[in-house]
């Protein structure tokens, strides 16, 4: 990946671009609650904890209604797209999460990582605490 930030409006990897980052792919497929929790915490800039978001996702995943966890993760895909001006590709957010949830989670994880907001970076909120304005 280049040193320049990706242009707004285009995803850095495709929905099925798992081979560009096998770690995010494995995390999304085998530990989706962890992958989602890290994405949610990153998108919410620490206001939502990884553990809380992951636990909610896990409960919704195992609630017996397959759409609940997809709806929850889809809302974060919308946040990600709004933050970086990304298009709804390859189809609407709901369809992406319903038909290919692990790929969607992996793509969101890669997108944040490729744009410099690595979801796995545990130190990101500790370093920013002194510079963040928590007023709103």
Automatic annotation (TrEMBL):
Organism: Urochloa decumbens
Region (Disordered): 116-136
Keywords (A to Z) from UniProt: Membrane, Transmembrane, Transmembrane helix
GO cellular component: membrane
Organism domain of life: Eukaryota
Subcellular location: Membrane
Compositionally biased residues, Basic and acidic residues: 116-127
Pfam families noted in UniProt: PLAC8
Residue ranges of the TM segments: 52-72
UniProt xrefs under NCBIfam families: A_thal_Cys_rich
InterPro entries the UniProt entry points to: PLAC_motif_containing
Official protein name in the record: Uncharacterized protein
């Amino acid at each position: 990946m280049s040193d320049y930030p990706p242009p707004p409006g285009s995803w850095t990897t495709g929905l099925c671009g798992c081979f560009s980052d096998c770690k995010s792919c494995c995390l999304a497929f085998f530990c989706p609650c962890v992958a989602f929790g890290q994405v949610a915490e990153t998108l919410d800039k620490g206001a939502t904890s990884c553990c809380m978001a992951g636990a909610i996702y896990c409960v919704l995943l195992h609630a017996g209604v397959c759409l609940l966890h997809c709806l929850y993760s889809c809302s974060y895909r919308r946040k990600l797209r709004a933050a970086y001006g990304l298009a709804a590709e390859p189809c609407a957010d709901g369809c992406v999460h319903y038909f290919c949830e692990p790929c969607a989670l992996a793509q969101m994880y890669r997108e944040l990582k490729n744009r410099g907001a690595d979801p796995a970076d545990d130190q990101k909120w500790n370093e920013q605490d002194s510079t963040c304005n928590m007023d709103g």
